[in-house]
Amino acid sequence: MILIAWAILFADEKITAPLRWKALTRLGQYSDGISMYHQMVAGLLHGAVLGAGPDISSPSGFATTIASLVVTLGLACLSYHTVERPCLRAGRTFAYGVPVGQGLIPMRLAGTPPQIS
Prior knowledge:
The protein is 62% helix and 0% strand. Helix 2 (22-50) packs across helix 3. The chain has helices at residues 2-9, 22-50, 59-93.
């Protein structure tokens, strides 16, 4: 929370310049895929290679974890460019075109208070 407030308050300052680095902003774009795939990939790779759960206490476990990081980043990148970005583009071109109160949302649910008589 403090980091977010700091980034907002000092958005154009040199102190927050690292938060605008291309690599970090790209990582932010891939973050949904990273969070979806990381546990599955780590579990599958450690299970297939070492026959055990994820663990970095040995050199082979550490190497397998690094490999799972690479695979996870690849899957996240692929899913962003093939699924998420096209959906975001499609969402930006879509417009409802129905005035509030004339569609499925009744006027009082859309923000107009009911009249009391």
